[in-house]
Amino acid sequence: MAKYKMHLLVCGGTGCSASASAQIVSNLNEELSKQGLNNDVQVILTGCFGFCEKGPIVKVMPDNTFYTEVKPEDAATIVAEHVIKGRKVTRLLYTDPENKERISDSKHMGFYKKQLRIALRNCGFIDPENIDEYVSNEGYAAIAKVLTEMTAEQVIDEVKRSGLRGRGGGGFPTGLKWEIASKNHADQKYVVCNADEGDPGAFMDRSILEGDPHSVIEAMTINGFAIGATKGLIYIRAEYPLAIHRLQVAIGQAREYGLLGKDIFGSGFDFDIELRYGAGAFVCGEETALIHSMEGLRGEPTFKPPFPAQSGYMQKPTNVNNVETYANIPIIILKGADWFSKIGTEKSKGTKVFALAGQINNVGLIEVPMGITLREVIYEIGGGIKNGRAFKAVQTGGPSGGCLTEKHLDTPIDYDNLIAAGSMMGSGGMVVMDDTSCMVSIAKFYLEFTVEESCGKCTPCRIGNKRLSEILDKITKGNGTMADLEALRNLAAVIKDTALCGLGQTSPNPVLSTLDNFGNEYLEHVRDKKCSAGVCKSLMKYVIDAEHCVGCTACARNCPVNAISGEKKMPHVINTELCIKCGACIERCKFNAISIK
Amino acid sequence: MIKVKLAEDKINKIKEICAFFSNKPGEVINVLHKVQGELGYLPAEVQEVIAKELNMSVATVYGIVTFYSFFTMIPKGEHPISICMGTACYVRGSEKILDEFKRQLNIVVGETTPDGKFSLNCLRCVGACGLAPVVLIGEKVYGRITTDKVKEILAEYN
After folding, report:
1. Which residues are bridge partners to A396 per DSSP?
2. What tens digit of pLDDT does each residue of A71-85 get?
3. For residue B143, what is the nearest residue in chain A, using CA coordinates?
4. How far apart are CA A76 and CA A56, in angstroms?
5. Average pLDDT over residues A300-323
6. C-alpha to C-alpha distances, A151 to A143, A154, A333, A417, nearest whole angstrom
7. pLDDT of residue B141
8. I need a labelling partner for A460 at 20 to 30 A (CA). Which of A451, A557, A578, B66 fits?
9. Which of A200, A281, A298 comes nearest B63 by C-beta?
10. Closest CA of chain A from B2, distance in Å
11. The dihedral sign for the CA sequence A342, A345, A346, A349
12. Which of A53, A200, A587 has the CB atom closest to B87's CB atom?
């Protein structure tokens, strides 16, 4: 990156792309060429910066200026003011929500202060479609070191000593997994990258693949050398077209540079990577199901053992790791296990990437050291709850995880603490909820997901989850009984004990954790037929308060079913028989005269 | 054997795709991806051709098509609408948005409007959680949708 005096980094992640970041790039380029600055300033479309809430993001290097919510028409101002005159465009700078000060250097933003970016080290920093930029940031230096200075045993030992655990959710020690695969001998072995990111509300792997695809390719090659595999496969969701494109470009470039293919670095080691596409089945995140899907079958899991390390893809020893796990590997090799194992807690080393979403001010992608507390994540990095409402729960671990509450806010986050609190790390989705979320409905939402995604192979998951979902539906409709609450617990326990794979065994977690932490809310639905969050439609009624209603007719005009009547300037009334409870009237009322009872 | 409702050129196209993957049964998912990309959907007749080419039973192909949610046997509308039902969108009110689309189009999830213009589906997380709730129409992403914007958005396609 030496020959340019200045770089304009534009976020090309999915969120920012949806807000016209490609247009920003072309406008910036156009402005620069008008000024004859093409050779001095380079515009780069990078991977995700993480701060999706205020996208699209444009970052100016080397001075680290961070512009938020940039519009394509702002390109001219950025070039005229910042690039030419060296004056920062104040109106595009991030405003600190507390002291209302404009912050120009992203290092001083609350969102970034507590973060430590290891897996995301290159995301938002390099052009993911240019291998030279990856190489200039120590890219492919780890594989060079491995192939020229290390033995397979040394590589495995380094990964083992680093304490890295699988980032896909299970938290199995990565080095141990590699060691097992390396000890099973066969004529052909496989290395598989699990990029079938399926948790709703999670987009960590997607961002790594879109922002830094070469790190995954390099890590898979290292993995191949360590276990004696010459073939790598990346199983990626077909719903991620941008990530697929960037991987294809990256694999092509790596082959061209001789970093994939025959005799890499003259070491005699051959390795190549192919892509395999998922087709929308959540269960394929489970490694045995994933392997069946790659073989062209229905993605149904099978009983373990045999583990994939013994008999996996095409019945050959196979090592499956997740994208984020791989993204950590090159830097562990370069900086050493001792460096990595100093970060984090006793049993969970390193960092974890989380997708922060829901009712929180700073939605986005963050990477934090293990051991940070939920409070730090939600209030310091996440900027607190949206619209100043009250925090209610945070859901981690996706459909297999659980909801944590206020009392867990100061628990250090690591694999074991989250399990002890009734949830799990999962792949890293973190959905924050405020007092407008009904926990019974949230449990129902996850169960509906599991029912839809259950492969149907084993009875506890196929039928048990369906029954759980039906009981929850009954409760949200106001027909629940106390016996139903008992039945939920019993059924959940049976499913946990008897389901075949990880999906089934963990699927009752959202129900159990909400029952444990929000038991009162279930009672309220069952006993009082009330939903205080105002979510369960059958349990609520829209009412206009005659004292506050000024008769502006805004509600009546916007009611889609004409359920509101009343004279102009006189209090209006809602006909509850006709009302479909869509909430359009509440959104329109400027006088807070409509409430849910 | 095959009830030829399909035009000859389409059958040839399917055969060509199967041949591209060396007619290997293990490649069936890649074949289905490619064929759906060409034809838009995978009706029974298409599955029969693929099964024959790859030397598999039609039941196996059907089993795969129905297993994966990405594959569809119903033709999508000219402008397929997908409402994101990921958790992030859900807690920011995507269910209300879905209800509004259903009401405006007068169809349920999985259906296509009688004029073939719009089809309505749900999907799980497009990874644009910062813009929640999110709706996709074709390839275009609409973020931070509210119920009153639905009508406006649909009008763009009329």
Report:
1. A402, A430
2. 999 999 999 999 999
3. A18
4. 16
5. 94
6. 12, 5, 12, 36
7. 85
8. B66
9. A298
10. 23
11. negative
12. A200
